Amino acid sequence: MVYELRKQPWFGLYLTYQVVSTTLFRLPYWYLSAYPQSWRPRPGWSITRTVLVSVFRHLFRVTQKTGPLVRFPTHHAITSGPGVKGVWVDPVPHLITGTILVLAHAANVTCARIPGYWIDRDTTLLPGAPPQPGDKVVYRLHGGSYIQLSAHPADPTANIARGILAHSSRITRTFAIEYRLSTAAPYSEANAFPAALLDALAGYVYLVERVGFRPEDVIVQGDSAGGNLALAMLRYLRDYADYHPDLRLPRMPGGLLLLSPWADLGASHEGPLSSIASPFSVDYTENAGRDRTRTVSYGKTAFLGPFGLGFAEKNAWVSPASLHPCVNARFHGFPRTLVCAGGVEPSLDSIRTLWWKMARDMGEGEGKGQVVYYESKDAVHDHLLFSWHEPEVWETLTRIASWFDSGP
Predict the structure, then answer these.
(1) Distance (Å, rounded) from C-alpha 195 to C-alpha 304?
(2) Where does residue 156 rank: exposed (0-12), middle (13-18), buried (19+ CB within 10 A)?
C-alpha cells in the first residue's frame, strides 16, 4: 500500500517521529560518515552535498508513506502570488485524432481548460504578451512522475526556467503548462494517459496560435516525466502533421531540450547490472526493496490507468527508449535536440538508449534536426532543481546556453 499514513493522527505522529529522529540521530550520522572522502558516494562530492542528498533521499522515502508534505498548485485553478503571471489555456479537442483519440476514449479522458504560467526575463511583461522580434520561448513540461510537482513559479522545477534565463541570452521568456496529474488508489483514479498529452498539445497551440510565437522560436523543454511528455507531444505533431487536410496542427518546434528524461516506463532496462540497480545508494530517488517497488508502481499505475503496466512495455508513446523488440520508436523529423543526464541517476541506461536511438535516426551534432548528448558524471537525477548541486548546475546550464547559441 502507498500513502498509508496520509491521514491524521498517523500523519502527524509519523512526521514528528521523523523530525526528531532525523535531527538527533540521522543528521549527525550522515555528517560523520561523509567526513572521510573515501566514504562518500562520489569522490568529487563535498560533505554538504553528500548530506543533502541523504536528506532528500530520506524525505523521498517519507513521502511514500505520508503523501506530499505540501500542497502543489493544480490544474483546477490559477494560484496567484507576488509576480505570478498565470493564464488560462483553452482545450484543443478539434486537434485530437488517431491513436491518441482512441486511447483517450478508452481512458475516459477528455480535453480540459487548464492554467499556464509565464516566467519572463522582463518582469514587467503582461502574461501572454505578443512576442517581440528575436524573442525565443522555452515551453516547459515539468517532472514529477506524472503524479506530483507543478508548473507554478513557486515550484522547485521553476529553478530550471530561472537558470536558463540567467545563462542563456537568446531565451527571453518561458511558459509552463499545469497539465493534469494522474491519481490512483487510495485516491480516486483520474487523469490517466493521455490526459497530460492533451494538455501539453493545448499549451503548444496556445503559444503558437494565440500568443503568436513562430514554431521555430519555441524550444520544448521537459525534465524527468516532463521529458517523457515532450517526446510524446513531438511524436504526435510529427505523426499527424499530414493526417487529414482539416487537421491543422502547428509545425514542429525549433528545438527539444530533455533533462533526465523518463524514457522507459517498462522494465526493459532493469537488471542486476543496470543503472537502476547500481546507483540506488547514491541518487536521492533511491528506494530499496519494497519502498522502491511501491514508488515506481504507484506512479506508473496512476499514469497508465486502465491500460496497465504491460502497456508501457511495448508502446512507443510512453516508453520510446524501451529495448523491447515491439517498440520501434523512430525519431526522423524531430527538431534539433539536446539530451542531458546525470552520471549517477538510476535512469541513466534508458537515457543513453534514447540518445542512441535518436542519433541513429537524426544524426549526431548540433545542426538542424540533429541530437547531441551531455552527461554530468557526478550529478543526480534532474539536478537543475537543486541550487546547491554545484558545479554541475552551472556547467549544465552553460552547456545548454552554448547549444542555444549554436542554433538558428
Answers:
(1) 10
(2) middle
State the first-to-last Cα distance of the chain, in angstroms, to the nearest integer. Answer: 50
Are 237 and 252 within 8 A, CB to CB?
A: yes
H or E stretch including 218?
strand 218-223
Neighbouring CB atoms inside 10 A of 246's CB total 7
Residue range 222-272, pLDDT digits in tens: 999 999 999 999 999 999 999 988 899 999 999 999 999 999 999 898 888
Percent of the chain at pLDDT exceeding 90: 85
Beta strands (DSSP E) in 92-207 are 114-120, 137-141, 173-177
Spell out the SS3 assignment of 4-53.
Answer: CCCCCCHHHHHHHHHHHHHHHHHHHHHHHHHCCHHHCCCCCCCHHHHHHH
- pTM greater than 0.85: yes
Q: Which among 48, 279, 251, 254 is positioned nearest to 171, based on CA atoms? A: 254
Enter the C-alpha cell of residue 80.
496567484
Tell me the average pLDDT across 169-190: 96
Which amino acid belongs to residue 257? Answer: L
